[in-house]
Amino acid sequence: MQSVVVVRRGRLVGEWYRDPASAGTVRSIRSVTKSVLSLLIGVAIDRGIFQGTDELLTSTFHPPLPAITGPAAAITLDNLLTMSAGFQWDESGVTEFDNWMLAPNQVAYVLARPVATAPGTQWNYDSAAVHLLSAALTSSYDAGTAGFADEVLFRPLGIQQRVWELDHQGIPNGGAGLSLSTRDLAKVGVLMLQRGRSGVTQLVPEAWILGATAARFRGVGWLDATGSLDYGRLWWLGQVHGTRLLLAWGYGGQFVAVLPDVDLVVVTTAPFFNLPDAPGQTDGIMSWIAGSVLPAIH
C-alpha cells in the first residue's frame, strides 16, 4: 500500500503514508473515478442537465461529439451507469483498455465497437463505455465534467487539489482518470455514509445515493474477503464479515470502503504500474481491511 486513511463516526482516527508521500499527495485512483462520476451524474439529473437515467445517450451528445447511430443509439445513461451498454469488450486484462487509451479519439473508438448484447440485459465491465458519461456531461455543461465536479462536489467538500487526465479530445477520462489525496477520498466516503449530505447541505440527492447503492446486477464481482459482489450504479456492493459494504474499487487496490452499519470509511491507495499480480495485491489489501481494521473498531 501507498497510503491509508480511516474515518470512524466522522473523525479521522488513523492514517499512514509510505515515504516520501504525505497527506497532501494526490494519487491516481483509477476506477474509483467511476464512483465519483456516478455522484456527478446524480447531481446533473437533479439540476436538469440530464432528464433522467432513462435518457438516451444520443440526446446528450452535441457537436463536436460524433452522432450515435445503429444499435448504440438505444443505449441509455442507466446502461452506462450499470455496465450494461452491451459493447463487445474484454477488460479482463490490460490490452483492451490500453488500446482504447492509445486510440486517436477515445469516444469514437468505443462507439465503433460492435454492440454484442441488447443494452441493459447483460453486465460487462467496460471503462471506455463509462467514459461516454463524462463525454455527455462535458458536452452538456459549459464547464465540462471537471468544472462541474469542482462546482458541485469538490469545492463544497473542501477538496482543493485534484488532477483529471484528459482524453485526446480534452474530455476528462471518466473511466479511470481522476487523482485525489487519500484524505479527500475519505470525504467522498463520508458523503456516502451521510447519504449525500455534507454538514447541512445536501450535495447529492439522497434518492440518488440509495439508488446507486441498490444492486442492479448480482454476483458479478469477487474478492476473497467479501466473497461475491453485486453492482449498482458504478458502485460495488457486498458484505465484510456480515457488515454491509459500499465499495469504490480501482485497479491494484485503490479502495474507498464504506461500511454504513458501523459508521466506518477506509481508504487505501497502492502502486499499479507494471503490476505483476494485480488480483493478489487487490485481495491482500481488502483482506487487510477485513482482518485488521474492521476487527479493531469498538
Describe this structure in words.
A hairpin with a 2-residue loop joins strand 1 and strand 2. Helix 5 crosses helix 6. Helices cover 33% and strands 21% of the residues. The mean pLDDT is 97. It has nine helices and 13 strands. The chain has an eight-stranded antiparallel beta sheet with strand order 2-1-13-12-11-10-9-8. The longest helix has 19 residues. With 298 residues, the chain is an alpha+beta fold.
Secondary-structure map with pairings?
Layout: E1 3-8, E2 11-17, E3 26-28, H1 32-46, H2 77-81, H3 95-102, H4 106-111, H5 127-140, H6 144-154, E4 163-164, E5 178-181, H7 182-193, E6 197-198, E7 201-202, H8 206-212, E8 217-223, E9 227-231, E10 236-240, E11 243-250, E12 254-259, E13 264-269, H9 278-296
Antiparallel strand pairs: 1-2, 1-13, 3-5, 4-5, 6-7, 8-9, 9-10, 10-11, 11-12, 12-13
Taken in chain order, the helices and strands follow as: EEEHHHHHHEEHEEHEEEEEEH
- Report low-confidence residues grouped into runs of 5 or more: none
Named CATH topology: Beta-lactamase
Shape: globular
Task: Report Rg.
Answer: 18 Å
Quick one: how many beta strands? 13
CATH architecture: 3-Layer(aba) Sandwich
**In what range is the share of β-strand residues?**
15-25%
Helices and strands: which structural class? alpha+beta
CATH H-level homologous superfamily name: DD-peptidase/beta-lactamase superfamily
Distance between the termini: 24 Å
